[in-house]
């Protein structure tokens, strides 16, 4: 399950009426007030605000600003530093490298980060100019720069290891929220996590006094396995702070003004990416850190698609962090770059972003938003079913972590890894080739699906049957290697998750 976050929700809380509860929509408001730099873009095409009905959102965790010590931008910046000195420290950050292994795989009792996850750190897909993730990122950066030159500072290299306080508390995630569970979040220790989204840096950058900023980086979540979900993906956070003279000049209240500016900016961005005539609609949502909150949907290829989450920032966040924040108002948004790239470029499987295959990478070029992915191969899948009586230790996320992979061969200490790790030994993996040895299944696992579940009427024990789909994007898999993988999955499920195999 995902925690409530700008980027994690697949559904929204409730239906809304036209505009905001009967008030004029952002589209009609902007006709009556002085236009922001974004309004020309927002009104040039067929994009209009409309309403939608939906159900409650699925959930996912939040984020941070202050960062653990030892590397640029994760040192706890002293409150005694001047704002200018602290800002210089942030902006001088180098291109991010993978953190030291000992910083992430700590052996702490609370640590549930796997070697598979650690192997993805420092890859920086968002900094590779011709990679589709970077193509989308740069198009959004260019849009905001063109509309308000010099206002939005961009941050691409903030450290992904953050404090749990900044990841949750500073963005008002409740103490009992599901996102804090190690079933959803990767913990380095009880007080430190791998950021769950780029809102993790919101409070820190507000404290530095930036009136506008865009943060892009890799984020980490324990999640299901299918074509659209991956435990590492890329998000962008955007924030804009306004002063009283801006909403006074527009003849609007602070919240109404921030909402109008937010919607104008994001409708214009959607049209930049998806075309001038794209149809948009705004859906009421809930996020702990914004109020009111919205999701932007676009009508693309015959269906409505969620693009991003956003809202007017909760005033307590601004008051606590931004210099003289009590007299200001702000909006914030978050979006997933993989989600946009898959829609825009017709990319069918999220694993392709990580493949490194030149047949994939050479189809995309910096600045080209018109590219469409052309499939170069489709190797056959291999299905393996596994039925078992569940245990208290079992969750679907734990199963997916185990199936996807744990510590890679050559890195084993022969012991169980963390509270939700898998018991797999190096000696069991040596006959498999490299792409299989990065854990149990690694990126050969295409999907894990619950296909049957029942509860015994007498014992009240629950039995689940999961289907694991193995498929390589680069070669045909052999029966021997898949059978060996499945044997290790069964051993891990039985030994670590304490289930009774059937």
TrEMBL record:
Residues 217-381 form the Aminoacyl-transfer RNA synthetases class-II family profile domain. Its main location: mitochondrion. Its EC number is 6.1.1.20. It is an enzyme of class 6 (ligase). Residues 88-103 have a biased composition (Low complexity). GO terms for molecular function: ATP binding; phenylalanine-tRNA ligase activity; tRNA binding. Residues 377-502 form the FDX-ACB domain. It holds the Pfam family tRNA-synt_2d. Residues 38-72, 88-109 are annotated as: Disordered. It catalyses: tRNA(Phe) + L-phenylalanine + ATP = L-phenylalanyl-tRNA(Phe) + AMP + diphosphate + H(+). Keywords: Aminoacyl-tRNA synthetase, ATP-binding, Ligase, Mitochondrion, Nucleotide-binding, Protein biosynthesis, Transit peptide. InterPro entries: aa-tRNA-synth_II (IPR006195), aa-tRNA-synth_II/BPL/LPL (IPR045864), Fdx_antiC-bd (IPR005121), Fdx_antiC-bd_sf (IPR036690), Phenylalanyl-tRNA_Synthase (IPR002319). It comes from the Eukaryota. Belongs to the class-II aminoacyl-tRNA synthetase family. This is phenylalanine--tRNA ligase. It comes from Monoraphidium neglectum.
């Amino acid at each position: 399950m995902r925690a409530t976050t700008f980027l994690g929700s697949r559904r929204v809380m409730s239906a809304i009426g036209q505009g905001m509860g009967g008030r004029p929509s952002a589209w009609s408001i902007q006709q009556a007030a002085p236009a922001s730099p974004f309004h020309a873009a927002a009104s040039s095409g067929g994009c209009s605000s409309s309403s939608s009905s939906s159900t409650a959102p699925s959930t996912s965790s939040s984020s941070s600003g202050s960062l653990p010590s030892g590397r640029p931008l994760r040192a706890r910046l002293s409150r005694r530093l001047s704002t200018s000195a602290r800002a210089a420290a942030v902006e001088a950050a180098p291109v991010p490298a993978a953190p030291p292994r000992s910083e992430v795989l700590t052996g702490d009792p609370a640590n549930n980060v796997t070697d598979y996850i650690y192997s993805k750190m420092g890859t920086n897909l968002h900094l590779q100019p011709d990679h589709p993730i970077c193509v989308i990122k740069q198009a959004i950066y260019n849009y905001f720069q063109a509309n308000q030159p010099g206002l939005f500072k961009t941050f691409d290299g903030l450290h992904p290891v953050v404090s749990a306080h900044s990841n949750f508390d500073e963005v008002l995630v409740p103490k009992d929220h599901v996102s804090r569970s190690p079933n959803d979040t990767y913990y380095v220790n009880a007080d430190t996590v791998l950021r769950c989204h780029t809102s993790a840096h919101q409070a820190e950058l507000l404290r530095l006094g930036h009136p506008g900023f865009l943060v892009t980086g890799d984020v980490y979540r324990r999640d299901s396995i299918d074509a659209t979900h991956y435990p590492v993906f890329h998000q962008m956070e955007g924030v804009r702070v306004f002063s009283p003279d801006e909403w006074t000049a527009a003849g609007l209240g602070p919240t109404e003004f921030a909402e109008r500016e937010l919607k104008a900016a994001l409708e214009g961005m959607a049209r930049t990416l998806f075309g001038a005539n794209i149809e948009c609609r705004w859906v009421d949502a809930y996020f702990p850190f914004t109020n009111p909150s919205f999701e932007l949907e676009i009508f693309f290829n015959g269906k409505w698609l969620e693009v991003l989450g956003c809202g007017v920032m909760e005033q307590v966040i601004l008051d606590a962090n931004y210099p003289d924040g009590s007299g200001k108002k702000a909006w914030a948004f978050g979006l997933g770059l993989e989600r946009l790239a898959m829609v825009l470029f017709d990319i069918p499987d999220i694993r392709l972003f990580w493949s490194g295959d030149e047949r994939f990478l050479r189809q995309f070029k910096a600045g080209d938003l018109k590219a469409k992915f052309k499939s170069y191969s489709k190797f056959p899948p291999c299905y393996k079913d596994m039925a078992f009586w569940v245990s208290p230790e079992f969750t679907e996320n734990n199963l997916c972590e185990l199936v996807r992979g744990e510590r890679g061969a050559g890195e084993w200490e022969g012991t169980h890894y963390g509270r939700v790790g898998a018991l797999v030994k190096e000696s069991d993996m040596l006959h498999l080739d490299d792409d299989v040895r990065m854990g149990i299944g690694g990126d050969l696992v295409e999907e894990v699906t619950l296909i049957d579940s029942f509860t015994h009427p007498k014992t009240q024990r629950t039995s689940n049957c999961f289907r694991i789909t193995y498929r390589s994007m680069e070669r045909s898999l052999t029966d021997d290697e898949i059978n060996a993988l499945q044997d290790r999955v069964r051993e891990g499920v039985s030994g670590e998750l304490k289930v009774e195999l059937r």
